[in-house]
Records
---
Amino acid sequence: MNNDNYGKPQMEGIQYCIRCCIPATQELVKFDEMGICQACQSSEQKIHIDWVEKGNELKKILDDAKSRAGNNYDCIVPISGGKDSTFQLHVLTKIYGMKPLAVTFSHNWYSETGWYNLMNSLEKFNVDHIMFTPNRSLVNRIAKRSLEAIGDTCWHCHAGVGAFPLQVAVRFNIPLLIYGESIAESSGRSSYKNPLMDFNVDYFMKVSTKRNPKSMVCDYITEQDMRPFFFPTIEELEKAGVRLMHLGDYIFWDDERQMEFVRDHYDWKETEVEGTYKGYKSAECIMPGMHDYTNYLKRGYGRATYQASVDVRNGLLTREEGFELSKKYDSEIPESLDYYLKITGMTKEEFYNMMMDKRLPEIKDIELPVTIKTRKNKERIMPYPEQLVEKEKVKLNKEKSAE
Ligand SMILES: [Zn+2]
């Protein structure tokens, strides 16, 4: 590596937050007059919040939900089996004695580790669970359509994770949905002192319009295919009184410590997540590498930049070390690209041409290097259900040939 470049950001001539590694190309990012991003402002506010008082507020909200629920479930906890959902289940069941209904929208891209974590959390917390799984062909078709529609590979997951828990809330008449990390934490969309808005009907309207399933219909996807992704109607949401909250607005959120906690107390497992140096966010999925690689090709940064920025805010890395990590990992071609091309039938050229179309105009002329990943991914890039079926098939064939 050229030492003159040590600690410098990937893209020349682009504004970066002066505190962390976030560039101006992040969607909806806002800098203050000093050039500090909203997530950095948020992390400062977080230290001055009275978390004891917030904890009391949380207790009140949960007690109230319990007394209203009667014999129904006290709340819905949307879970993926990730570190956040395991921690949510711990807080709600063990600390506050809630009886939640756990709800999972499966992207159907479960990693082996992620599948274990999901099953393990259900066993450890004794919660009832509902899971929705879109069929393989549909997932593959939407993955193709997703790239041209929104420039990443994961529309079905974004949309399903938003819609399915709300559908369950309406059908089972469970009004309270409890999510994990606060929007203020590092999304850049809001801060603790300047919250996004109330998570009410206006919010649902806005989110549902952004992920409108009708806009995905094309010659290989029908409106009927899109059924799982529709939000309940506003009338249905209002009638059920649906509202959502994030535990991270009431509990001091610390990813690293929570991960260690669920690992040490509940046998939660990390794995390799492509495109970054941490193994505990999106560990449940085989495709985050593609999600973040497309972000890199569009916006010039990926998951390593995002996570390094969190670590810089928390004093775990210097900003220069953060930039070095982002340059090392963001540009690495993920193994999941091969899987993506296989399921969509796209060629490499088609993929890269599409990504060039999606690149932000302000960075069109900046060269974004890509590097070959030389080590083998820690686990296989194939959805775990497919791996299971394949394994049994091998066994069956052996038995047949032995007969
Ligand atoms: Zn920042």
Note: The chain has two domains: 3-36+274-384, 48-249.
---
Amino acid sequence: MARPEGLYCAAGDFYIDPWRPVERAVITHAHSDHARFGHRHYLASRPGANVLLSRLPGIALQTLAYGERLAIGGTVVSLHPAGHVLGSAQVRIEHAGRVWVASGDYKLDPDPTCDAFEPVRCETFITESTFGLPIYRWDPPQNVFDGIDSWWRHNAAEGRASVLFCYSFGKAQRVLASVDAGIGPIFCHGAVEPLNRAYRDAGVPLPPVRLVSEIERKDKAMFRQALIVAPPSAQGSAWLKRFGDYSDAFASGWMRLRGARRRRGVDRGFVLSDHADWPSLQSAIQATEAGRVIVTHGSVEPMVRWLREQGLEAGAFETQYGDDTVEADAAVADQTASAQDSDVASHAPAEQADERIDRIDRIDQPETRDESIPGANTS
Ligand SMILES: [Zn+2]
Ligand SMILES: [Zn+2]
């Protein structure tokens, strides 16, 4: 059930992705709106341990392999792949013969950097709904990466750098693992590198990637054939000057919205998301065979309405899970902490602009108010 601290399981006395400090937290994945500092005990998936510890160093972390069962209070808890980012997990809770599953964030599309989403049968399914509107339908990822490759190839042929903005954890590694590394050298921003390292340490193969800051500032020629992967917060910053002539692009599910593309002001928008699109949300929910579905974040109302039309019991929990904005902030924090780049200070205005844009983008979507539906909070 929903408490001010987060989603709470009374039978096991633990929280899932709490946003206020608690005694015992089960973490679905290391994105900063789901994994926060301040809890006494953390439980998360073993494949996600590297990334989680790189973002929250020093936490008291216990890990479970996917599918491994652990008794907590009167419950049995296990974690199952969510296909969202490395280590992302759905939380299965069994209590008195009843099964609940909390999805965290998830996607069904193939992703070489993490385990595929596993449908888990349950009576009650708690689902995200970030892109829970019929307008959100993703092309097959291979088509999107072909598009990124041809944009990069074209720029390289013209002697122009290709700067791709995407979130530093998850999206960046998925892009790195999926583009054609034979087109030219690949560089990344200082905020992306610690995540690359955590992925490699976890055994995820990524192509060789160099840090932009290793290259002398006047050495612009180094970047003419290159793909440069940078967080959205780098957009509009002085950091970009070193590339000379460049084309820029943004990879995000929000690029599906024309207004978002326009306001981003980039040359290209690639529609690439680590969340399930509308058809995938529906098929994932159906695969659980749940009779009751609770929607957490994103387009809550349209999803609840659709679920009720399917004859399911449906409601909403109000949560503080956000979307990409928080991620962009985290990227800046990471970068400031690592201080690998001398342009850190100049990123602050870009970051603010970023937040503003993300807020405007949300207004673009009809019917996305986060509204709790009374009567749903029964657990
Ligand atoms: Zn996430
Ligand atoms: Zn989320």
Note: The first strand starts at residue 2 and ends at 3.
